[in-house]
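Subject: two folds for Thursday's group meeting

Dear M.,

Sorry for the delay on this. The cluster queue was jammed most of the week, so I only got both jobs back this morning. I'm pasting them in the order they finished. Each block is the input sequence followed by the predicted C-alpha cells. Could you check whether the formatting survives your parser before we put anything on slides? The first protein is the one we discussed after the seminar.
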Amino acid sequence: MSQTVSQLQQVTAFLLASLTPYVKANNIEAWQERGTLILSSEDLGQGGYQVAKWKHIAVIAIEQFPHTKFNAYNLLAMLPAFLLDSGWPRDEYGLADPQLDIDVVGSDNAMVLIELELIDDIDLIPDANGPVLFNGERFRVSLVPVDYAESVDLQTRPEGAL
C-alpha cells in the first residue's frame, strides 16, 4: 500500500464531506508551507525504514463560506473534533493548535483561512526500481507493513506459586 494520503489531504476531505452541500469542492484549496524534515532512520522491520517526519504548516482556504446559512461555530467544532478523534500524536510533537481567520466578504459569504501544524511519516520500503537510494539499496515511499497478532497464548500461575 503506497503512502499517498497526507494528513492535510485527510483533514481537507473530512471538511469537504462535512460542509457539503454548503461548500463546493472547487471552493476549498489546501497546501503546505514552512516545513521541516525531522530525520530519524528508524528500522521498522520487514526491510522498511522511517527516514524522516515532515512537520509543516497546513493551510486550508475556504472561499464563499455561507456564514449566514451554516453557523461558523459548527466549523470551529468540526476541526478539533476531527483532530482529537484522529489519534495523531499532536501532543508528542508539540504541534500548535489550529488558527482560523474568518473574513466576511459579502452579506452571505466569508473567506475562511485555517492554519494548523501537522506531521507526516516518511517511510520507505524496498523496491528494486524505487527512486530513493538509502543504505546502498533502492526504496520507494510507502507505509511499512505491520504484522498484528491474531491471537495470544497466555499462561498464568496460581497466586503464590513459583
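Second protein, same layout:
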Amino acid sequence: MPVLMMSAGGLVLLAAIWDVFSRRIPNLLPLIIAALYLLQAGIAGDWAALPWHLLCGAGVLVVGIVIFSFGWLGGGDVKLLAALALWAGPDQLLLLLLMTCLAGGALAVVYVLPIILYRIPAISGLIDWFFISVLKKPAPHLQAGKTLGLQLPYGVAIAIAGFVVFYQFFRVM
C-alpha cells in the first residue's frame, strides 16, 4: 500500500513544517499517521506482525514520555516518533532511532553554529562588514544569551528519520 505510506509521509512532512514555525506538532497528525499504519496493516492482512509493530509504537511512547518528563523532548515529538515506530516495527526501529539521533545532532549544529561563530570577533566583524558593505543594512545580532533556552524543532529530525524508514520500505517493494 504505497499510497497509505506516501500519505503518512506527507503528514510527517507537514508535522516537520508545523514544528519549524510554531515549535508544536498538533496531536491529530501523529494520530492520523498511526491510523494509516493500522489501515495499511489491515488491508495487507499481515496479522502476525501487527502485535510487534504495536509493541514498538507503545515502547517508544512509554520511553518518550519519560524523556518528555525530563524536558528533553516535546510531547508532539514523542507522539510523532511513536507513530513512526508503528510503521518501522521491529525490523526498522533501530534505524528510525539512530537516524533520529543523527539528524537531531545535525539540526543542533545548524541552530547553534551561527551563535558560536558570531562570538568569534574576526568572524563577527566579517559578518558585520558583509552586511553593511554588500547588503547595505545592519547585520542581525544573534543573542547568545538565549541559547540556553533554545528550542530545536526536533520534529524535523524525526521526519528525516521517518523518511529514511519509508525509503527502506520502498526499496524492498
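Two things I noticed about the second structure. Confidence is low (pLDDT under 50) at residues 143-148. The two ends are 10 Å apart (CA to CA).

Cheers,
T.
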